Amino acid sequence: MLEIIRDLPRLEAVAGPWRELAACNPAPMAGHEWAVAAAKTFGATTELAVFALWDGPRLRAVAPLGLSRVGPARRLQFLDRPLQEPDSLLFRDRAALEELVDAVAGHHRALALYGLPLDGEEEAALRGKRGGGLTLCGRPYVSHAALLPPTVAELDEQLSGNARTMLRRKLKAAQKLGAVAFSVETLDETNREAFMADLIRVEGSGWKRANGTALADLPDQRKFYEHYLELKAPGGTLRGYRMLIAGQVVAIRLGAVAGGRLYELKIGYDDAFRDCSPGMLLTHECLKAEIAEGIGVHEFLGGAEEWQKRWPLRINRHVTVRRYPLNLNGAAALAHDVFEQAGGRLRRMVRRG
Questions:
Q1: H-run or E-run covering 62
Q2: Measuring CA to CA, which of 98, 140, 210, 326 is 20 to 30 A from 105?
Q3: pLDDT tens, 292-330?
């Protein structure tokens, strides 16, 4: 049976079946708490349209979507689209996925699913929808995951000589400024608000603030993480990492543990201390702490960054799949996207010129 969940109370009520289904996908973005936090945060501009396939009391598949206006047309997108994190659909098997894709396509709305696994089952199912619309895939992008060895000693050995030298040099530079300390804590009801305050302050101290991408300048994203931490803290899976110099927090990281992995959700460092690369130093200490906890993979999420290549990596490839139905809604969405793509190319040419 297909249900389209259109209000927050109903979304909150399916927590149990959702969590049972999400056992097949440990990523935080697939979790019920993530969907509820997104609905609470972005509900003013996104109409809930969560597609749920039921088999009696059990969920067979879920598409955590909402209807948003992009240009002249409304389209179905992931509820958390403003966060620009990798995403996926939830499904028990290929038959459930195919039925879910049929239901979403049958809604006759333009569809834009950002961050699906490249060459994954979702992409294949969407590409296989031949009739009644046009399906296009955007240019793939990559994210990195650090593959963690069993011991800290092995992690250090896997670094290049230049990377080890750099980390030692940066640590000595930090120590000249004061006593250096690293901390890791499980976030719960007693400490999550203090951690968020540190995160907002440190992240907003430098380049992110200048780019307008700091939580301090993005009230909706700040509210999302506040909601998410409130919902997720009781589970004991949230981790807060800090680097301190002379008692002052100079770098900070928020992560979530699931399925033997640490998913890095937010990072930041104090720009006043950039000469000693506190973000880099904290990253290495985070990886060491994760090894001690028995975690095998550190998912950086976001887009791949050059600085992450100092550690042994796996490359994750993602793609945005768009579908345009053969109606006015699809035509308006397609025209808007073609215009935006052409404008983006023109702006890049101007910058290069």
A1: strand 58-63
A2: 140
A3: 999 999 999 999 999 999 999 999 999 999 999 999 998
Q: What's the CA angle centered on 245, arms 274 and 286, to 5 degrees?
A: 75
Are 77 and 66 in contact by the 8 Å Cβ rule? The answer is yes
Tens digit of each residue's pLDDT (9 = 90 or more) over 164-175: 999 999 999 999
Got the DSSP string for 70-109? ETTEEEEEETTGGG------EESSHHHHHHHHHHHHTT-S
CA distance 160 to 151: 17
> Does pLDDT of 190 surpass 70?
yes
**Cα(305)–Cα(60) distance, integer angstroms:** 36
Report how far residue 213's alpha carbon sits from residue 180's, in angstroms, rounded to the nearest whole number: 28
* Residue for token pair 């709305």: 109
CA atoms within 13 A on the CB side of 33: 17
Q: Which amino acid is at 162?
A: N
| Residue 169, CB-side half-sphere exposure with 13 Å CA sphere | 7
Please check whether residue 305 is in contact with residue 267, taking contact to mean a CB–CB distance below 8 angstroms: no
d(CA 311, CA 314): 10
State the CB neighbour count (10 A cutoff) for residue 95.
Answer: 11
Sign of CA dihedral 295, 265, 254, 245: positive
Q: Which two tokens stand for residue 202?
A: 């440190």
The answer to whether the beta carbons of residues 53 and 100 sit under 8 Å apart is yes
Task: Report the DSSP pairing between strands 73-78 and 297-299.
Answer: unpaired
SS3 assignment, position 143: strand
Check if the beta carbon of residue 295 is closer than 8 Å to that of residue 257. Answer: yes
43: three-class secondary structure by DSSP: coil
Q: Are 234 and 166 in contact (CB under 8 A)?
A: no
Q: Are 87 and 80 in contact (CB under 8 A)?
A: yes
Rounded CA separation 276/171 (Å): 7
Q: What is the pTM of this model?
A: 0.92
Q: Are 321 and 122 in contact (CB under 8 A)?
A: yes
Lookup: tokens for 295: 């975690």
